[in-house]
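step 4 of 6: structure.
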Amino acid sequence: MSEECGEVKLIDEQGLRTDGRKPDEIRKTIMKVGVLKNADGSSYLEQGRNKILVAVYGPEELHPKHLALPDKALLQCRYHMLTFSTDERRSPAPSRRDIELSKVIKSALEPAILLEKFPMTTIRVLVEVIQSDGGTRCAGITAASIALANAGIPMRDLVVACAAGKVDGQYIVDLNADEDKLGEADLVVAIMPQRKLVTLIQMDGSLTLDEFKKVFELAKKGCYELYNIQRKALLEHYEKVAKEVSQDDISK
Amino acid sequence: MISPSDMYGMSFLKRRAMLKLLAKGTRLDGREFHEYRPVKINIGVVEKASGSAEVSIGNTVVIAGVKWDIGEPFPDTPDEGVLVTMAEFLPTSASFIEPGPPDEHAIELARVTDRGIRHAPLIDLKKLCLIPGKKVLTVFVDIYSENYDGNLFDAASRAAVASILTCKIPSFKVGEDENIEVDEEQLKPMPIVKVPISVTLVNIGDYILVDPTFEEEQVSDVRLTFTFTEDDKICAIQKGGPGGISEDLLMEAVDIAFKVSKEQRKLLMGAVKNAQKENDT
């Protein structure tokens, strides 16, 4: 991995990254909720060139029934990439990566949801990657959490995820695809910002213990920045809904 | 298969009993919180495999084997060999495991083991290139669980790493018309860079337990696997389980895992050395 760093410069003389960002700068991010009519909750997120659509269905009846849990809802997550979301066309069949990511996304979201309120049912979280440019599992978790809130599912906290890592010997936040591929380390962190709990951590690459702790702090900082955008997206949506409702009242 | 977190309902009482026990400072099997069960590493158990190992950690038993083939490189790494890691839960592992293609648990197990090996890196894949862009060696590392009593991640990692460290591959010669001649007489070891050692712990309440048993996994909030190389670096991390963990406990877990990885490394390297000695005589 580190050998390739010599060939491709990921950080230039001015200390800027390939997409012009500073090392501790996250990509331009926009989030919206309530974007799909049929879903109980939904969201759309753009983080740099990442474009993610999430739908939440449930709590609803679970099929096949034998999977139902007697004391809580079953959380089912699917991470899925569209065939044209990457440089090369992807096979439409689910890859082993997709299956692992579905599992870790579930593991990241589960601590925040009051599943025990809905025994015998399912809550389905569908993460659709429309375009990917690195960090789609994080973007998927961040978007899924506001889609769950939009579905009115009781939660302990939002969940927000961000990656950080090391490229060209420097610590950077919110890695794009090139930095993820050619960098020295990639650390994915998801947190519940109010509860101060870590709900996902994954890493590959090479870091000393001290470096790990520094990169972790950077990822956490990215998480809090994204958390503010999450809150703004939810507030904006419900302010609009409130206005519509009050206008309806007047017209009556 | 049924995952530990899916059996949460049944385990509510077990969790309460476990927390009571942990408050007294003991584990169900009498171990210290940061202590592994006995680890046994049996190398070279399958003659037809280029490398193989059976590893038991307490009652958990995993077998791994290495096979090779000549194949094509990935387009983005034309001068590197290919590593393929697969894991499967044999139905012998436990009553609730049914035969069938690898499910999400088996895929996660394979991918986490692979990540440790790939990012250490254990194998110098560049040395497995035969004709750049055309022909390279493909190394298959296949892992099967035989008996499941928790902590498959570490058992799988040890078995895979021990198999690769003791693996013998033939010598290859590239002929004039790009034919590959295989010399099965001249066997050589796999080109090795660094050795990854994984340490898995679980978090139950405020407690951190190294090398969880199935019962401990069942009632745990968070499962963490940290993989270290001999130059004291972390090369892979994976979180699982239905809960979240505080930052303080997470950092405590890394430090514990790092410490424990040292003795586990000694154990593995000792077993590998013994196997190599036996092979030489």
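step 5 of 6: annotate
 - Residues 2-251 of chain A form a domain with the Ribosomal Protein S5; domain 2 fold (CATH 3.30.230.70).
 - The first helix of chain A runs from residue 96 to 109.
step 6 of 6: archive
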